[in-house]
Write a structure and sequence with these properties.
This is UspA. The protein is built from ten helices and ten strands. It has helices at about 25-30, 45-50, 55-75, 95-105, 125-135, 175-185, 210-230, 245-260, 270-275, 280-290; strands at about 10-15, 35-45, 85-90, 110, 140-145, 160-165, 190-195, 240-245, 260-265, 295. The model is unreliable at about 270-280 (pLDDT under 50).
Length: about 300
């Protein structure tokens, strides 16, 4: 999907009321002025409260939540005039966020993940973020919780480019639009990353010279494919990076070397069987990268 112009852009952000987990809000503030910032907070559906609340108490809760969301958005530097606060009632948080993103016709949804930069805990994305990422109602950005927390010494946006990780498939078309938009908005150059399959185990029997020649040929062929793909999408002048082997490891190594402001990638989606046996590349990157990761459908 093509991104809206800045003055019309509607960016939604999932706002947690715990100030230790508002990296997503700080990321939206770091994007600069957009048309509207929609602060989203999900509370349980009314049937959860009915047995225990008196008449009018739910409205009081909603009002207090809305005021807290407004305070957190303003504290991050988002002008009140640009804010739209939505307290969403739903059976689950992921239902509320996904449904609101579609109903409000958001151009981008930004939410936090559980794991801090560089950490490798058992839970990295968090169940809510993982489920929203699987649904992918609109382009989604996942952000480390401490992003931009000056008291913790976090720098916020990296000093490097916008990295667009592509497999040259149709699943990356929307990612191209988003990467271009972020590049222009943040005044950062684009870096295109493309990975090819690693050599089979049989190459270990070849001489080092032969292996080096084969690798050079594979890289040259991959770079030519990437150049052709880029030129067809108006990205012919963008820097290229080609690697071989595991795509998650290859992209994460590049992220470590280049300190990008944002990593952008497309998603092939997951069927029921894939969900049972493993995550997609985009999900692994969103869980592991030490920078904000934007994923498009």
């Amino acid at each position: 999907m093509a991104m809206a112009k800045d003055q019309d852009m509607r960016v939604g952000v999932g706002v947690e009321l715990d100030e230790q987990h508002i990296g997503a809000v700080r990321f939206v503030a770091a994007m600069g002025a957009v048309g509207t910032v929609v602060g989203l907070h999900v509370i349980p559906a009314p049937d959860f409260f009915e047995p225990v609340l008196e008449t009018g108490e739910l409205a009081t809760i909603r009002g207090q939540v809305a005021r807290n969301v407004t305070r957190l958005l303003g504290g991050a530097g988002i002008a009140e005039a640009a804010q739209q606060v939505e307290v969403v009632e739903a059976q689950t948080i992921e239902d509320g966020l996904s449904g609101a993103a579609e109903q409000l016709k958001l151009d981008l949804l930004v939410i936090g993940r559980r794991a801090k930069r560089g950490a490798d805990p058992l839970v990295r994305l968090g169940e809510v973020t993982r489920r929203v990422l699987r649904r992918l109602p609109v382009p989604l950005v996942t952000v480390p919780p401490e992003f931009g927390d000056r008291s913790a010494g976090d720098p916020g946006l990296g000093a490097g480019p916008i990295i667009l990780a592509t497999d040259l498939s149709e699943h990356c078309e929307a990612a191209v639009d988003l990467a271009k938009a972020l590049s222009a908005r943040l005044s950062r150059p684009l870096l295109l990353a493309y990975g090819t399959d690693a050599f089979s185990w049989g190459v270990s029997y070849l001489s080092p010279e032969t292996r080096a020649r084969l690798e050079a040929e594979v890289r040259a062929g991959a770079d030519a494919k990437l150049q052709s793909w880029a030129e067809a999408r108006g990205l012919g002048d963008a820097e290229h990076h080609v690697f071989t082997g595991d795509p998650v490891k290859g992209v994460l190594q590049l992220v470590a070397e280049r300190d990008p402001a944002v990593l952008v990638t497309g998603s092939r989606g997951l069927g029921p069987l894939q969900r049972a046996i493993g995550a997609s590349v985009s999900t692994e990157l969103a869980a592991s990268a030490p920078v904000p990761v934007a994923v498009t459908g």
